[in-house]
Amino acid sequence: MKAFLASLSLALGLAFLPAAVQAQEPLRIEITEGVVEPMPYAVPSFVAETPEAQQYADQISRVVADDLTGTGLFREIPREAHIAQVTSFGAPVQFADWKAINAQALITGSVSADGAGRVVVKFRAWDVFAGQELGQGMQFAAPAEGWRRLAHKVADQVYSRLTGEDPYFDSRVAFVSETGPKGERVKRLAIMDYDGANIQYLTDGGAIVLAPRFSPSGDRVLYTSYQTGFPRIHVLSVGDVQSRILQAGDGQMSFAPRFSPDGRMVVYSLSQGSNTDIYAMDVASGATRRLTSTPAIETAPSFSPDGSQIVFESDRSGTQQLYIMPAMGGEARRISFGQGRYGTPVWSPRGDMIAFTKQNAGRFHIGVMRTDGSEERLLTASFLDEGPTWAPNGRVIMFARETQGAQGASALYSVDISGRNLQRVRTPAGASDPSWGPLQ
Amino acid sequence: MTRWLPVLALGLCVLAVDAGAAETRPEPVIYAAPDCTSDSGGAGSDYAAQFAAAVQRCWVLDPADRAARVSLTLGFALTPDGRVKPDSLTLRHASGGDPGAIRRAFGAARRAVLRCQGSSGYPLPRERYAEWRRVELCFSPAKPAK
């Protein structure tokens, strides 16, 4: 209504303006096409405010730049090209110097260490062409061994201010580390920072482990282990690295577990004889409930973010397809109808999309579709891509890619949901089955 | 005032840095103005297309961002040598997004206009300054971005 009244006022006002003034109407031009390119930005090395901080200042600013550039949305302007030198955190920003090298955003920072093993980092972000600060300056403090987290925190703040998206850099990924030849792989459960740093091994490789899944709060990991000879679901406490088997009957195979959004329930597949159905278990009480009951193979359940629905894969139609059913079980509706087979569906944290693995014409793809099955887009293609997992902000997908042949190995990759910016995640050995945890 | 928020895993803490007298970024003010109608067929058609092409090269879209679906009209004034008067940049109209998306779309449009003027301003015919001294640029991401 306000807009309408304002328009009406404008129209009435214009009607009574003298002709000379009306002649000074602004030139109106319409632009309908932009360009898709990374935004150029600059991160001068952070200023070391104490001698002890020198070793961290450059490392932290380096990780901040790696985080931002790694998104594919930003392009770092090399430091050799910088005209202005930032020698004091509080000094006025020389916007003209940054404009001259076409930096659209500037991140300045400083690092200090208090001698008691504590590092403090301050930063400010600037919109160079507007000559304004982007948001408020902030500082973070942590024990020195946590300096990478400090850098991720700074990058998260900058990323959110520049894109408006929720951040994801200060997060971890659970995965299966793979070493040894293809026929004798040693598989260990591991956790790392989202960028492959700080790997921590959680199992010793004595038993095959599969499909780790972070809890929503990041304190536990579900996984499937062959420790007893049968596949059984384990739950591991990340803090003390203690695990226990979730209840299952003798002779039953349980696998493909995933937490509910509140962390209280686990949905999983249970095989009895030749039939596989989906069950839900209350983690605290061990009480179980059967959610599907068909002669088909139903597996890979994943909750919607509000916990009301579950997407899963089933071959009930004769081919492997994706279905959605109420979280308590009930009638399922098919959402995938394209050619080929669909599997490993995962609901986006934003709730609007589902990522999946698709096999068609001898190729594997990671794709996304709306929750009603519309707008299917394939983001990757290779000999074997599988097991998508969403970044906490729903903007990036990580998955495993295996290369062909006897020497073939598995590695982790990430891709933006636009299909751009495919990147390999640096891990020291083979890696598969990624599960992206929450923002810390 | 400082505010500490403990993060348990590493004893990580955060507080706001005193920004001193630093400028705070104002929220874009949205005026009710009609959608932009291009003058490409009017008096300014000979140079308006070149002007549009120049700005377009600097209009960066992120196709996965909701801001890429916002249509907006940016109003500004130019000096006789084709430079943008920075304080004159205003958001005249916006539609197709939530406030966050509109804010990002406004930032991208503003950067496009300011960046692409370069150091010498836009090449516009000085003798027709009266026609282009005030401009309304309508950014309509209707077509797929290149």
Automatic annotation (TrEMBL), chain A:
<dbReference type="Pfam" id="PF04052">
    <property type="entry name" value="TolB_N"/>
</dbReference>
<dbReference type="InterPro" id="IPR011042">
    <property type="entry name" value="6-blade_b-propeller_TolB-like"/>
</dbReference>
<keyword id="KW-0132">Cell division</keyword>
<dbReference type="Pfam" id="PF07676">
    <property type="entry name" value="PD40"/>
</dbReference>
<keyword id="KW-0574">Periplasm</keyword>
<comment type="similarity">
    <text>Belongs to the TolB family.</text>
</comment>
<dbReference type="InterPro" id="IPR007195">
    <property type="entry name" value="TolB_N"/>
</dbReference>
<comment type="function">
    <text>Part of the Tol-Pal system, which plays a role in outer membrane invagination during cell division and is important for maintaining outer membrane integrity.</text>
</comment>
<dbReference type="GO" id="GO:0042597">
    <property type="term" value="C:periplasmic space"/>
</dbReference>
<feature type="domain" description="TolB N-terminal">
    <location>
        <begin position="27"/>
        <end position="134"/>
    </location>
</feature>
<comment type="subunit">
    <text>The Tol-Pal system is composed of five core proteins: the inner membrane proteins TolA, TolQ and TolR, the periplasmic protein TolB and the outer membrane protein Pal. They form a network linking the inner and outer membranes and the peptidoglycan layer.</text>
</comment>
<keyword id="KW-0732">Signal</keyword>
<dbReference type="InterPro" id="IPR014167">
    <property type="entry name" value="Tol-Pal_TolB"/>
</dbReference>
<keyword id="KW-0131">Cell cycle</keyword>
<dbReference type="GO" id="GO:0051301">
    <property type="term" value="P:cell division"/>
</dbReference>
<feature type="signal peptide">
    <location>
        <begin position="1"/>
        <end position="23"/>
    </location>
</feature>
<dbReference type="InterPro" id="IPR011659">
    <property type="entry name" value="WD40"/>
</dbReference>
<dbReference type="GO" id="GO:0017038">
    <property type="term" value="P:protein import"/>
</dbReference>
<protein>
    <recommendedName>
        <fullName>Tol-Pal system protein TolB</fullName>
    </recommendedName>
</protein>
From TrEMBL, chain B:
<feature type="signal peptide">
    <location>
        <begin position="1"/>
        <end position="21"/>
    </location>
</feature>
<keyword id="KW-0732">Signal</keyword>
<protein>
    <recommendedName>
        <fullName>TonB C-terminal domain-containing protein</fullName>
    </recommendedName>
</protein>
